[in-house]
């Protein structure tokens, strides 16, 4: 059995959670647009957008919060996809891999909810952020220890 085919349940699980995270990242752009249009009179950063929508060029705290959450996704989800893909190559157990993929995915969804949708004070965002970091760090450890003998 090849590690990178749908015959491998670990790779199939990775593919499923990667798709969820990809969709979530794409939807963040729509959430940003929704915030901009909700604040029609003050939330356009580009002159052409403001002119087209009869708004003003100005930043808005709510729009910027969603943009920061989106940027945070890009800073965390893209490394996860690379790390988890390499992790699949170590031949981990299905249970452990699913747990890590689910932990990371849940953490990213929670991060968005507590940071950009229902703003909840700290430490809610920190807990969500560190859940994803812990999953990534564990996978990095597993990768390094699996391939350390190769060097």
UniProtKB/TrEMBL annotation:
Conjugation of reduced glutathione to a wide number of exogenous and endogenous hydrophobic electrophiles. Homotrimer; The trimer binds only one molecule of glutathione. It holds the Pfam family MAPEG. GO terms for molecular function: glutathione transferase activity. Belongs to the MAPEG family. Keywords: Acetylation, Endoplasmic reticulum, Membrane, Mitochondrion, Mitochondrion outer membrane, Transferase, Transmembrane, Transmembrane helix. Its EC number is 2.5.1.18. It is a multi-pass membrane protein. It catalyses: RX + glutathione = an S-substituted glutathione + a halide anion + H(+). GO terms for cellular component: endoplasmic reticulum membrane; mitochondrial outer membrane. It is found in: Endoplasmic reticulum membrane; Mitochondrion outer membrane. This is Microsomal glutathione S-transferase 1. Its main location: endoplasmic reticulum. The chain crosses the membrane at residues 12-33, 77-94, 100-120, 127-150.
